[in-house]
Amino acid sequence: IVVVNIDDPVKPAQYTISVTQDNMDYLTSNGKYSETLGGKNTVTFTASAKRSILEKLSNTDFTAVADMEKIEYVEGDGVCRVPITITCSKYNSNTVTISSKQQYLDVTVEDLGNVQKKITASTEGTVMDGCALGDVSIVTSNLLKISGPSSVTSQISTVVATINVDGMSSDVTDTVVPVLYDADGNEIDASKLKMNINTVTITAQILNTKDVDLSFQTKGTVASGYTLKEITYSPKKVRIKGETDVLNKVAKIAIPDDVLDMSGATEDVETTVDITSYLPDGTSLVLAADAKVEVKVKVEPITTKTFEVDASAFTLENIPDATKAKITEDTIQVEVTGAESDIKKLSADDITGTVNLQGYGNGEHNI
């Protein structure tokens, strides 16, 4: 023991430390992106020194630097290597000798991709019953600048920032992280990417709702010998959203009559009316599907039919005092003109009438 302590022999020892990559802008300025192969960013080496020195050394006393300006391109396999320079920060090279074996950092290099994408605002969750979602917008910058390996940036199709509105009954604002998606809607791992902004602020407007009736009118007159039977449409009602003071003033949504011009029509008219432009100011539809209303205006020929109505179906009114009156015929012919479908449904039993005898005296009268 005494001999060893006095002699203090030189001994080797192994160390493992992380490698620092220097001059990364050399690659980016040349439109390239690199990352360590397999994520391995450490180097193991041997250092020799007197035993008394080794006892004082640890991994933290060494630095390993890979200068990207010295990158060596290897043809064929797509993997490059960068020489690593290892130094001891605690002692000089005369005191600590580092193995002369050249160490390398293996990296993969590909083209650097740069893209700009507009951030789209979205929501998740359902607002409180009786409320509806209004405008959803990004308050801060909505332009995202992204750089990274082209194999990743080329996949970016959309960027979405989502705010949670579940159970909300009033406007809400939140700061959220934008998420990247490919063309198939799959989320893209952004760990290798650099972005100019990490979060955005979104505001979501929460509005009240109201169910209101639709009202259609027609313009013009159908052709002679025809009649406008009825107007049917679906949906009959729509749900609109807006501020409370605006909704309180809305009783119905009236569609202008020039939308349904029936001038000279001889057959049914069927059309789809987009009611969006007829909504009261400050309101909008809760369901976008309600914007298209299917409308049918039924037009029928006018027809005339004569019915033999039993005289008992007629009531005599205002019979003069001290007199009696009766209808002398068993049946009365009644001529009815109207829409063809209505006439077909009609029978003599459906017809009743009255005879006003005021001012008539004794005798026979044709009234």
Can you tell me about this structure?
There is one protein chain. The mean pLDDT is 93. 14% of the residues are buried. It contains 6 helices and 23 strands. Helix content is 8%, strand content 49%. It has 367 residues and is mostly beta strands. The strands form 4 sheets. Strands 1, 2, 3, 4, 5, 6, 7, 9, 10, 12 and 13 form an 11-stranded mixed sheet that branches. The chain has helices at residues 2-7, 25-28, 51-54, 150-153, 244-247, 340-345, and strands at residues 10-22, 32-36, 42-50, 62-67, 79-88, 97-98, 103-124, 131-138, 143-149, 158-164, 172-176, 179-181, 194-195, 200-216, 226-234, 237-242, 252-255, 269-274, 283-285, 292-310, 314-317, 331-339, 353-356.
Put simply, the count of helices is 6
Mean pLDDT metric: 93
Overall morphology: rod-shaped
Alpha-carbon distance between the two ends: 150 Å
* Quantity of strands, as a count: 23
Q: Helix share of residues? A: under 10%
- Please give the oligomerization state of what you see: single chain
